[in-house]
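Sanity check

After download, print the first record. It should look like this:
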Amino acid sequence: MKKENLTPWLLLSPCLLIMGSTVFYPAVRTFLFSMQRYRLTESYDIHFIGLDNYRSILSSSEFWTALSNSVFVLFFVLLIAFPVSMLTGLLLNRKSPLNSVLTAAAIIPWALPPLVNGILWRFIFYPGYGLANRILLGLGLISAPFPWTENRFSALLLAALVVAWRVIPFGSILVLSSLQAIPTELYEAARVDGSSRFQEYWAISFPLLLPTFPILFLQISMAGINVFDELLALSGDRYELSTLLVYHYRMSFRFLDLGLGSAISYLILLSSGLLGYFYIKRIGKERSR
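Expected structure tokens:
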């Protein structure tokens, strides 16, 4: 092999070494664990069982409860975060002396750790006399404190709201950067033709923002699927509120069943990988145009 052909591989070798040791090797080991009966409480009895862990998971009511909860949270995260990210990006794109301050303030929820976000919102929606209940009681809208995190529906909806609140800043910045990349000459030409603000948005901004939508959709979806810290901070580890990641945490670190936990992680990886596959496929189509 020529020296010129070896040079790129030599330059990439540190990155390949890091990726191999921290991503590919653990992924292979996790898959091998998922094919074994591997319980730390019974370390003397570790053996190969094939797909039994996957069969056990798919026949478990706890898995289907966790899956339905994850889908519920994902749906509402998308429902809240996608339009609000669009609207916030459009507002930040308007010329104003406060734009830099507002942009910095908008990033704060994204910069805070997910666990901190969950704790902050738990104080607001505390089942007793949290801030939300105090306001509603003061306005006379309720006669007794509402148990926000005790009810399954309201607790999952709150988790979706917290995740959306965390991911909206990233989505807004993404939309803002796409809007600022649009040549101003297009808007100037539209104004000369007598176009209104709405017509400018519909004929110029919206079509040029379309390539951003798959990226925004993917980022919001990944945040919705991977909800963990926020839910535990809001309501604790409860069976009826488990999402896929909480279910994985319970099996792996509370019951110390690494074989079952590894199989769950691969099912989560499969659901996340499907989103990534469609996103990459979409990008490939756009580049081939």
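If your output differs, re-run the checksum step. Summary of this record's structure: The beta strands are 36-37, 47-48.
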